[in-house]
Amino acid sequence: MGNREMEELIPLVNRLQDAFSALGQSCLLELPQIAVVGGQSAGKSSVLENFVGRDFLPRGSGIVTRRPLVLQLVTSKAEYAEFLHCKGKKFTDFDEVRHEIEAETDRVTGMNKGISSIPINLRVYSPHVLNLTLIDLPGITKVPVGDQPADIEHQIRDMIMQFITRENCLVLAVTPANTDLANSDALKLAKEVDPQGLRTIGVITKLDLMDEGTDARDVLENRLLPLRRGYVGVVNRSQKDIDGKKDIKSAMLAERKFFLSHPAYRHLADRMGTPHLQKVLNQQLTNHIRDTLPNFRNKLQAQLLSIEHEVEAFKNFKPEDPTRKTKALLQMVQQFAVDFEKRIEGSGDQVDTLELSGGAKINRIFHERFPFEIVKMEFNEKELRREISYAIKNIHGIRTGLFTPDMAFEAIVKKQIVKLKGPSLKSVDLVMQELINTVKKCTRKLANFPRLCEETERIVANHIREREGKTKDQVLLLIDIQVSYINTNHEDFIGFAK
Question: Which residues of the chain form CATH 3.40.50.300?
Fold first, then answer.
């Protein structure tokens, strides 16, 4: 394969990526790609902006990247950006690019800091970039903010794993130098899916913020936690630099000066910095595409034959025939119902091996999350004993009691039973959310019919929400039933069976 053909590999995969995104499905094919993984404050955004030479990514506290961003860099004389969802519109103001990313994210995820695995495709043309495609994933987080669900950490982890478990995906693990490398979230995840370190590329940021007298030389020389593809160190702009509007060109010069002048990194200067990282990634991705191309071509050919076989059934299809439309509509709705049932019941021809979904997640809510919430309930034995003592004395009043009255016992037990309302109602919320997520996954097959897809989601989601209220009423009724009568004659209370 000649140099010119090699240069065409990344643009070719970009076109395939756009085609698959436009179809709303991956066609069951794994495209060669690089996924960017790191903690919230690892410096991922700065690395990507340094590549482009422009400030274009949303910034702020908490989770900023809430949808995967497929960033395609294309070498060009002109400088502008295009979104796949804004066909024909060129963005020359990169502040507008940032606003569009935020608006498109909110359109799918809402304003409550939620996340979605539906990607945003952004292509940047510039004379300052090399041909390169990266997928920027949400930063790894531990604590939910705003209206985010309690399991936001699991959701983000599941989304990241959805990308990096693919054998065709290189992992760009971004870790700040001023933290313990052994505890790096990015490297931990990378090691789970790539234990030999064969497809992981390490990026060490914030080298200029390390404690005085310390350095990351052993890491950058690939002696500590070695990776086959090695590590590249970079120095990003600080928050103070960003607030002070320090441009990226000045930051790149400062980065170069840092490596040339630092005694621990001077001998590595030619293999450090953002320009070198961009060259490394361009070469690594090009080679990776070349190596995976034969197998990819075979899978694509096999799927083409399969689709041609499916299309054969429609060779006599007449779009204008109303009976055909009705039949097709009924078939699609029926297939949706079958897919939904299979995802909940756990059966199905195509089992998801990358993440828990549908019935499996609901099972986890019942058998892991709900018991966990019960265990989390505050239980102070000393306080409970005091409450029991007060209850007994208050029931006896001015009398001195000889026996423990049942009423005191019942008062305490009822108070504990009522505490179950919180975890129980929370479990209903989690199950409802998972059912709605399952509905969205099942409607992916309707992506070619946007209005049908939207209406199906709306009607089914509304029905689920209606049943949510009735389910909560039933849960509260069951708790009220338990509270209304305490069977003190039960063997669990008296310690033996009659």
Answer: 3-297
Residue range 3-297 forms a domain whose CATH class is: alpha beta
**Which residue's structure tokens are 């009924």?**
330
Pairing mode of beta strands 120-126, 80-83: antiparallel
As given in the structure block, the two tokens for residue 373 are: 């919430």
* E runs forming strands in 89-157: 120-126, 132-136
Task: Name the amino acid, one letter, at 110.
Answer: G
DSSP string of 210-224, one letter each residue? SPTT---HHHHTT-S
Residue 202's SS3 state is strand
* 299-313 CB burial, b ≥16 within 10 A, e <16: eeeeeeeeeeeeeee
pLDDT value for 496: 42
Q: How far apart are CA 441 and CA 358, in angstroms?
A: 9
Q: What DSSP assignment string belongs to 228-266?
A: TT-EEE--PPPHHHHHTT--HHHHHHHHHHHHHH-TTTG
Helix-, strand-, coil-residue percentages of the chain, each rounded to 5: 55, 10, 35
| Partners of residue 204 on adjacent β-strands | 175, 233
The pLDDT score that the predictor gives to residue 347 is 67
Tokens in use for 455? 């209406």
Q: How many angstroms from the chain centroid is the CA of residue 176?
A: 21
Which tens digit of pLDDT belongs to each residue from 271-314?
A: 999 999 999 998 888 888 888 888 888 888 888 888 888 777 66
* φ, ψ at 36 (rounded to 5°): -95, 120
pLDDT in tens, 401-442: 555 556 666 777 788 788 888 889 888 988 988 898 888 888
Output the six-digit token pair for 248. 């990226």
3-state secondary structure of 134: strand
Return the amino acid letter for 125.
Answer: Y
| Spans of the chain below 70 pLDDT | 1-7, 21-29, 60-63, 112-113, 145-148, 313-321, 347-355, 378-385, 388-393, 395-409, 488, 490, 492-498
Q: State which amino acid sits at residue 62.
A: G
pTM for the structure as a whole: 0.61
Q: How far apart are CA 451 and CA 419, in angstroms?
A: 44
Residues in the chain: 498
Is the distance from CB of 150 to CB of 144 less than 8 angstroms?
yes
d(CA 42, CA 117): 21
The pLDDT value recorded for residue 4 is 57
CA distance 494 to 498: 9
